[in-house]
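ok, trying the design again with the full structure, not the truncated one.
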């Protein structure tokens, strides 16, 4: 079996082959909020935001100060308040969240990772969101040899079978939080340690 496929098969076996699906609009706004923000603060902010402004229409017409206060626990709350209100306005004008990468990338505050998260977690499409975990671990495992997340995304799509794309992000994020940490990785309990060129003896 190909080494990359073997790595992914073992990680899927450990972390499961399920992933959450949500409304594309909620995925889009939550992912924008998550940028440079800890997971627990993102969760808290998005719950507060959607409780107060559950639809694009309500958020599009909301007072900027009120949005900022609602999401104050995220990084750069003022900037994100402006972005998500503008995104809500654009989504309202478009009649919904677009399901194409190029259209998502035209929205304010939306880069490739955010757009790909919407495609995977909002629409169930095959895409590869590359965050810091995915970029770091893909390089550490020797699946890719890249210096930017964009390069990593391209290489993953070239080297990894398409049936693994939709699970790649969620499995690598869990693996990165649990075992393959940036510092002091837990190589002694790693399910793919003998396949890893970077393992610590």
């Amino acid at each position: 079996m190909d080494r990359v496929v073997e790595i992914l098969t073992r990680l899927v076996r450990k972390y499961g082959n399920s992933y959450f699906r949500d409304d594309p609009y909620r995925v889009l706004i939550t992912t924008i909020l998550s940028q440079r923000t800890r997971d627990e603060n993102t969760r808290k902010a998005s719950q507060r935001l959607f409780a107060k402004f559950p639809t694009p229409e309500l958020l599009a017409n909301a007072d900027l100060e009120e949005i900022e206060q609602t999401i104050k626990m995220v990084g750069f709350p003022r900037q994100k308040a402006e972005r998500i209100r503008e995104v809500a306005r654009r989504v309202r004008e478009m009649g919904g969240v677009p399901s194409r990468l190029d259209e998502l990338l035209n929205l304010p505050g939306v880069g490739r990772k955010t757009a790909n998260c919407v495609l995977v977690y909002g629409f169930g499409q095959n895409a590869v969101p590359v965050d810091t975990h995915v970029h770091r671990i893909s390089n550490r495992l020797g699946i890719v040899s890249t210096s930017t997340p964009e390069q990593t995304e391209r290489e993953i799509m070239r080297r990894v079978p398409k049936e693994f794309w939709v699970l790649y992000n969620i499995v690598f994020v869990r693996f990165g939080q649990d075992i393959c940490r940036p510092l002091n990785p837990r190589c002694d309990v790693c399910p793919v340690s003998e396949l890893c060129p970077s393992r610590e003896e």
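Keeping the full-length input from now on. Residues 36 and 75 are 6 Å apart (CA to CA).
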